[in-house]
Amino acid sequence: MKFVLSSYRDAWVRYLLLGLSVTIAYLLFGTLVAFERAYTSGADVGALRMVTTNKLSFTKPLPRAYFDEVRSLDGVGASSFAAWFGGYFQEPRNRLHTIAVEPASYLQVYGDDLKISPQERAAFISQRDTFLVGEALAARFGWQVGDQVPVINKQIERQDGVASWKLRLAGIVRGSTAFIDTSFVYIHYDLLNEARAYDRDTIGWIISAPAPGQDPSLLAETIDRLFDLSVERTTTDSERSFALTFVAQFGDLAAVTTMVLGAAFVSLLVILATTTTLAINQRHKEIGVLKALGYSQSRILLLFVGENLLIVVTAGVLGLIAAAWLVGISSDTMASIAPGIELTGGMFFSGLLSLLVLGALASGPATLRGIRTPTATALRKG
């Protein structure tokens, strides 16, 4: 241990920079891996539900009458519809993920995925001026059931010209798993439809659950054929695919994550190998002395590789801890696209394992070449 500590002391700048490189790389590793897991796991929720949108773009509305036609199909079980509302609370930076829904059918379609008490469900369904909020958003703003909340929306023009929608909180919704987004607000579609000046009797998308025994892909084809000759044609896909398509607007996150992590690891491998080679070239005399004292090549190899591994693993663990902290404090703001984001024990173990492999690959070959140098040559080089 004294040998290792003296080595760190003599080249502390080099080892400090090496440690910082490893820490930053594993901060990036932990953050990106946690995000990708939360994003892909969240997309698996409700994979059997189908979402029907405008074929040109999911941002274009559909006629409200389309929902009645879809609901009447034999292969459709529970079904509902929704429209984007948006808006913000108090000031523009407090943007809300607000959706206008038909309360009873919407809660039926999502069934056990959304947890809400019977009393709060009944209050929301029966009272048009109420809304539901996910527990993540309620915790963020400190909202309680019964609160009067003004939601401001200047994008949707009302007939009375007022931008503020005064609503009362009827209930707080919890997800059945950590991967269900609870950063949303649900309001009554009828309230929106009757108040707005334009686009009345239009909806954003239709959600359908296949009837028992119905093939979801065949149901999607049936729905889209229904509107083949209509002005507004449709495209129907699973809710999972719809969610992935929505986030894909920001790029192929899985590919980006893989490329960034790959580039980081290759760069880190080069840095570690270069640093180790430099250190070995400067320490030939130490290697020669150890060999002269009777140390075996395997023992010297373990000594030098262990010295590097101690730096790499310590710095990497610090990076993973920093990543866990960063993910933890940003989980609320990331809830809408990566609900349930966290750095799990499995991810931490994978990171630790990769640190051991990385350290061994980077320092092993250079150290092996150094210790194979004849003792007399090593002492002369030193």
Biggest β-sheet, characterized? 11 strands, mixed
Shape: elongated
Number of helices: 14
- Secondary-structure element pattern, one letter each: HHEEHEEEHEHEHEEEHEEHEHHHHHH
Helix content: 40-55%
Distance between the termini: 22 Å
Flag low-confidence runs: none
Rg calc: 30 Å
What class do helices, strands and sheet pairing give? alpha+beta
- Average pLDDT figure: 81
Proportion in β-strands: 15-25%
Q: Report the count of strand segments.
A: 13
Q: What keywords describe this structure?
A:
17% strand, 13 strands, 14 helices, two-stranded antiparallel ribbon, eleven-stranded mixed beta sheet
Description:
The protein is an alpha+beta fold and 382 residues long. Helices cover 54% and strands 17% of the residues. It is built from 14 helices and 13 strands. It has helices at 2-10, 12-43, 65-71, 103-110, 118-126, 135-141, 189-195, 216-226, 239-247, 253-282, 284-292, 297-330, 345-371, 375-381; strands at residues 50-54, 62-63, 76-84, 88-89, 97-101, 114-115, 130-134, 148-152, 164-175, 184-188, 202-203, 205-210, 234-238. The chain starts with a helix and ends with a helix. 33% of the residues are buried.
